[in-house]
Amino acid sequence: MPEVAEDSNIKIGDRVLLYLDSRRTWLVQLNDDSPSFHTHAGIVDLKGIVGKKFGDGVSTTMNEKIRILKPTILDYIMKSERRTQIVYPKDFAYIATRSGIKSGSLVLECGTGSGALTSFFASLVAPTGFVRTFEERDDFFTIAAKNIQKAAMSASVKMEKGNLKNATDIEDSIYDLVMLDTGDSWTLLEIAHHALKGSGFVFCICPTTNQLENVAAAMEDKFVDVECLEIMFRRMEARVGKTRPSTRMIGHTCYLASGRKVNADH
Predict the structure, then answer these.
(1) What is the pLDDT of residues 41-63, one digit of tens each?
(2) Residue 21 belongs to what domain range?
(3) 143 and 232: one domain?
(4) Nearest to residue 123, comparing CAs of 159, 160, 99, 96?
(5) Rounded CA gap, 61 and 39, in Å?
(6) What's this model's pTM, rounded to 2 decimal places?
(7) 132 within a domain of the structure (yes/no)
(8) What's the CA dihedral at 133, 92, 143, 153 to 10 degrees?
(9) How far apart are CA 94 and CA 91, in angstroms?
(10) Which of 52, 61, 109, 211 could make a disulfide contact with 42, Cβ separation 3.0–4.6 Å?
(11) Is the peptide bond before 89 cis (omega within 30 degrees of 0)?
(12) Residue 266 has pLDDT above 60, yes or no
């Protein structure tokens, strides 16, 4: 049986998720410069958290009980700074499952955006794999770098300013997944085909059905197992004797188009 790591105490520098309820959570970093954290449920003494263990509780000045949780990659993503619509967990979980990326996999991405999907991929391929990602916009590039660093994924990400179209050093047939999140992703499929290993996956994020049609048409001949889909996500309100679907749900976020690289017949 493998040796089990000891549940260590929380220390200065750690990031923690303060959990009041499913709708009210806060991601904060403990440091000497921020002795307290203000919420509508009262003030949290952050110094009082140091030395506790994840899962412990702390009371606010209004005597509200807040639980101290260890942030997951999802918490970092959903709490990240962003100026664009992020790809939601319902979408990137499917991308990861279908493509089969794991520790050691190599991912090429165009359209870093806020770095949400980049951070998620990096958490899967670390420590021996990496994500090489391209972003044209200065503001997005800066925000993404901060979000990736906050999620502690910088070591597994190579960020590049620019467009994949202009890159002259894309390696041939080494990537397990190419992720395209641009307004004209079908124009990048030739590059994706060049970069992918045989049978490797390309995924395209398509906000509209017209873009989805263009991608699907452009995948002919060079990709097989082409799939176009949309994923819905709805929570359940589970209460004894009156369980029902939630009145709110995450509906349309994007369309996904994917295909697997095939080699030319000789």
Answers:
(1) 999 999 889 999 999 999 999 99
(2) 15-71
(3) yes
(4) 96
(5) 10
(6) 0.81
(7) yes
(8) -70
(9) 5
(10) 61
(11) no
(12) no
174 located within any domain = yes
What's at 200, amino acid-wise?
A: G
Whether residues 141 and 83 share a domain: the answer is yes
62 with 81, same domain: the answer is: no
223: number of Cβ within 10 Å: 23
* 37 part of a folded domain: yes
DSSP assignment string, the chain: -PPPPP-PPP-TT-EEEEEEETTEEEEEE--TT--EEEETTEEEEGGGTTT--TT-EEE-TT--EEEEEPPPHHHHHHTS--SSPPPPHHHHHHHHHHHT--TT-EEEEE--TTSHHHHHHHHHHTTT-EEEEEE--HHHHHHHHHHHHHTT-GGGEEEEES-GGG-S-PPSS-EEEEEE-STTGGGGHHHHHHHEEEEEEEEEEESSHHHHHHHHHHTTTTEEEEEEE---B--EE--TT--EE-S--B--S-EEEEEEE-PPP-
DSSP-assigned beta bridge partners for residue 25: 19
The answer to whether 130 and 157 are in contact (CB under 8 A) is yes
In a domain, 95, yes or no: yes
Mean pLDDT of 156-183: 95
Same-domain status, 50 and 83: no
| pLDDT, tens digit, 9 for 90 and up, residues 3-50 | 555 668 999 989 999 999 888 899 999 988 878 899 989 999 998 899
Residues 30 and 141 both lie in one domain: no
